[in-house]
Design a protein that fits this description.
Largest sheet: 2 strands, antiparallel
Number of domains: 3
Protein name: MMEL1 protein
GO molecular function, one term: metalloendopeptidase activity
Strand order of the largest sheet: 1-2
Order of helices and strands: HHHHHHHHEEHHH
Pfam families: Peptidase_M13_N
Number of strands: 2
GO biological process, one term: protein processing
Length: about 220
């Protein structure tokens, strides 16, 4: 109650400016950080929690239960920047190999990979190994008709960009769309270079334009 009162501005007339009356104290005591687009009590709690979690994850894992050890191993692997830089693109190239390679980053994918490539198999690998659902979203959740059991749900997945608007609207949406396409082209060129595949910018641009066209059709 004291915190709520502190975040109010009782001197403001609620009939004239209710927002100032309800939130004036908060506005007086807090400034939105340059790294944020908003700042609320939930943002403060999140920042405080991240500091606490950082301290917990950096403690010794001796005597911890297995789940805590795994969390600390994952944290250490993310913080080991020297090893990450040393491995460079190798983890990504290994992941691409698991899913049957990437046509745009291959010299002859249609001849060497496509004959044995199965979409159903690769979708299941993306789901089970990488928790990435493409074309179809599938998950287990509480049954809406009987909360005592869990059932399999099948749904549409998320899009490459945040929402459908990014694929069709103009203005800032169009600028994001153009940057998104350029980002795909840049990544494809980088992978081709790392795999020592010959440079072919026109081929990459054509292939990535097809990807954008497919995503737009899915969004529609």
């Amino acid at each position: 109650a004291a915190r709520i009162i502190q975040n109010m501005d009782p001197t403001a007339d609620p009939c004239k400016d209710f927002y100032r009356y309800a939130c004036g104290g908060w506005l007086n005591h807090h400034v939105i950080p340059e790294t944020s687009s908003r700042y609320s009590i939930f943002d403060i709690l999140r920042d405080e929690l991240e500091i606490i979690l950082k301290g917990v994850l950096e403690t010794s894992d001796q005597g911890d239960r297995e789940a805590f050890q795994k969390a600390k191993i994952l944290y250490k692997s993310c913080m080991n920047e020297s090893l990450i830089e040393q491995r460079d693109s190798l983890p990504l190239l290994e992941a691409l190999t698991m899913v049957g390679d990437w046509p745009v980053a291959s010299a002859d994918w249609n001849k060497t990979k496509e004959p044995n490539w199965s979409m159903e198999e690769k979708l299941s690998i993306m789901n089970s190994r990488f928790n990435k659902r493409v074309l179809i979203d599938m998950f287990v959740w509480n049954d809406d008709r009987d909360s005592s059991r869990h059932i399999i749900y099948i749904d549409q997945p998320t899009l490459g960009m945040p929402s459908r608007d990014y694929y069709f609207n103009g203005g800032n949406y169009q600028r994001v769309r153009e940057a998104y396409l350029q980002f795909m082209i840049t990544i494809a060129k980088m992978i081709r270079a790392d795999k020592n595949v010959s440079k072919d910018d026109s081929f990459v641009q054509e292939e990535m334009a097809k990807v954008m066209e497919l995503e737009t059709e899915i969004a529609n």
